[in-house]
Structures are given as structure tokens and as C-alpha cells.
């Protein structure tokens, strides 16, 4: 039995008066990859945002590496080892690629991720250091976004719709990169409309519907459970 | 150039916090008064020039910690009311501590003469003010565009949430940049004091001009603040000399035309 990395207990989050998350619970062990699936508007993005306190949960607990993250600032959570690559990829239009990568503070020299390793993973970035990221294609933006996140040296990476709007060959490239990240020991939570790709990466699945966790289990159990697939995903 | 110092500070604060600090003019006035006190006590203009912006920045820091921190996510109406209220508090504090009389500071001896520039006699202190403006513009440019901290500031302006996710302490950046913006207002106050004097009400005179500069230049853009302050400054001065009949409205006309052609300002995002 591997160590529990993240434990989410009965998370409730509001946007203004609308009760978006009404009870999200799951847990994740070291080197797990969990796919969070659900229909549009089910609360997947809000779940990821609530984990890093960008949307503050009103109740419930997020325990990451034995620490309760209640009232802890997002930048500290990132420092502790959990960061999010948002759906819009969060580009900085006024920064060059080089600047985007260099602003992430590297505290100690035994960091797992360094610039040379990033260029090994995504070689195309190396030739575009002086470019501004808003001149990039969607695929390049996604690679830059993931690279930046890796430079924070996360233990757990949250990915929100990473393949959205990308061409199939880029999706393949991204899939290979993410697989190699998992092999290197990283844990990932991925929210994805491309269910096939998500299931190829994941070993665990959590299904969200109407703001509640409806089903959680291993990938193989999910694949055999056509009832859940039909009721909450319509497949 | 004073206008540039003011609008640079205001535009930086707006870019980072999306708050229009209407009390920016008050900080300019307070900077001038603090400079006045330091000058009176020490008789050194140079000491006042250095310390007044530092004290104003400190006041900005405290204001941020006590007030601005809490209105960042508030609706614009509350932000306007709060910063508008600060204008009155600033004005009354100045009256309380320094009285209602107007004061003057004399420029240091070395800058009190005039020199000939392009065939015209020009007071050397005014040249010095222009020099300060250019110096600050250059320093700000280097700081924001060429340093790592500057890149972090720009990242925080572009997408504060993403910056946080990348281990950048945006709250800390906000505090220091807010203080820097206030310090620039204080610097404007002390540099202008030998030319325009120090009196209650000097805040409102510049506030409107500064807001126009920021709107014309494009809120959040430093380059916009520079070009906008030159444009508005020249139009205002030349307007008063050559077409005094419409001098009162000409800068508003410039603003209106700019907004019609470029609704986000000259260098707006």
C-alpha cells in the first residue's frame, strides 16, 4: 500500500450564491493518475480550483501531504508541491518564453526539474525562447504551461482539459510526455473531455455529477461499470 | 514630467490591482508637505528629495495593509468611495499638521539660476525636473522589462491566478508595487514644490490631469503614461499660451478624441 498523497473530504464550494460543489470526496496515493470525468458543468474545473484554493471551499477538507490546506494561499500550496495548469493555459502575453520559465523560483539545486530536462521533454520550446507566448499555437501554449508547472517541482499536477482544441498529432505528443511524467514518479489529476486519452493515462477514475462525487474506483472497475458510464457520462 | 511621475505610479497600481486610487493626488500633496518639513528642519533640499518619496511610500505601504488589501475584490463603487474619502482625510490631515497657508521651498543654489537652451533662457531647476522624469522612466523600464522581479510583476499583471500557481507571491508584489507607486507620487510632490509651492488643494489640481493621462495613455501601461503625460502636458501648456479661450477644455477634447479612436487608450491592452 503506497502513501496517501491527497485526501479530499466532502468539499463544498459556492460561486456567489450558486452551490457548485456539493460534496466531493476522493483520495490519491503517490504516483496515482486520476481522471475526473463528468458532463459539462458538473463541477470538474471548480474541483481543481478548490484543491489549490483559487476557489475557496466553504466546507470540507483538502489534506495534501498530511497538511490541511484550509486558508492556505495558492502560492504556498504550489510551493508545497501541488499546482494547476488551467483550462485557458494562463499565458503571460507580456513575457517571452524565456521569462515565463525563469520567473519560477528555484530554491534548491537538487530540484527534479531543470530547464535542460524541460527541453528534453518538449524540444520545440528550446527554439522559441525569445518569442512571446501569445504568438504560440494551442499545443505550444499547453507545452509551455506544463513546463512552467513542472519547474515548480510539483508532486501532484492538476491538468484541466489539456488536449482541448489540439490537433490529434499534438494530443499524441502530449500523451507521450504525460506518460513519461507518470513514469518519473509524478502524480496527476486530469480533467478531460477526451475520455479515451484520460483512461489511457489513468489508473483511477472519479465521476462527478451535479457537483457531487458519484463514483470513484479503479480504471478497470470503471470500464466494467456500464451503468455509471451511461448515467453520468452518457456513453 | 511631474505628470509622468504621477501617472506612472497610478497606472502601475491600476494595472496590478484594478483599483483607481483617487487619493493618488493626496499622496503627491503629502509628499510635498513631508518634503517641506524635512527641508525646513534640515535646510537641505537634497535630503528632502530623497526622504519625502520614502516616507510617502511608507504611508502607501500602511494604507495598503490597513485599507486597500480589503477592497481589492470589492465592487468598483466601494473602491471609489473609499479612495474618494481618503482625499478628504488627506486634505484635513495636511491642514491639521501644516495649516492652511501656502508655503514655498526654494530650489538648491546650484539649480537656482537659468541657462540658455536653444537660444531661450530656461530655469535650470526645470531642466533638473525633466532629468528626474527621464531618469525614473529609464529606471522603471529597466526594472520592469529587464529584471526577473520585473518579469514577475508583469506576470502578476497578466494573470494573477496563474502567477500564484507558479509559486509567485503576488500579494507581496502588490504591496511593494503599491508602495512604489505612492513613492513616485511623493517624488512628484517634492520635485514640483520649488516651482508651484506647497498648499492644500494642490492634490485636486493634479488628480484630474493624472487621470486624463492614464486614460489617454491606456490604463496599466507605463509607456502610455509617458506618452500620455507628454501629450497632455504639451497640449495643456501650449493651449494656455496660444488659444487661451479654449484652454480649459482642450485636454478634455484630446481625451474624448483618443477614446473615440482608441477606446482602451493609446497603449491599452
How would you portray this structure in words?
The complex is a heterodimer of chains A (235) and B (269). Chain A is of the alpha/beta class and 235 residues long. Chain A is 35% helix and 27% strand. Chain A has one domain (4-217): Rossmann fold (3-Layer(aba) Sandwich), CATH 3.40.50. Chain A has ten helices and ten strands. Chain A has a six-stranded mixed sheet, sandwiched between helices. Chain A has a four-stranded antiparallel sheet with strand order 2-1-4-5, with helices on one face. The two termini of chain A are 32 Å apart. The model of chain A has no long low-confidence stretch (mean pLDDT 90). Chain B is built from eleven helices and two strands. Chain B has a domain at 2-104 and 122-200. The mean pLDDT of chain B is 90. Chains A and B meet through helix 2, helix 3 and helix 6 of A and helix 6 and helix 7 of B.
CATH fold-type name of chain A: Rossmann fold
Provide the CATH top-level class of chain A: Alpha Beta
Our estimate of the beta-strand percent of chain A is: 25-35%
Shape of chain A: globular
Oligomer status: heterodimer
Order of helix and strand elements from N to C terminus of chain B: HHHHEEHHHHHHH
For the record, the CATH architecture of chain A stands as 3-Layer(aba) Sandwich
Show the largest interface: A-B, 26 and 19 residues
Provide the spatial order of strands within the biggest beta sheet of chain A. Answer: 6-7-8-3-9-10
Tally of contiguous helical segments of chain B: 11
- The DSSP helix count of chain A reads 10
Q: Strand share of the residues of chain B? A: under 5%
The percentage helix of chain A is: 25-40%
Domain tally of chain A: 1
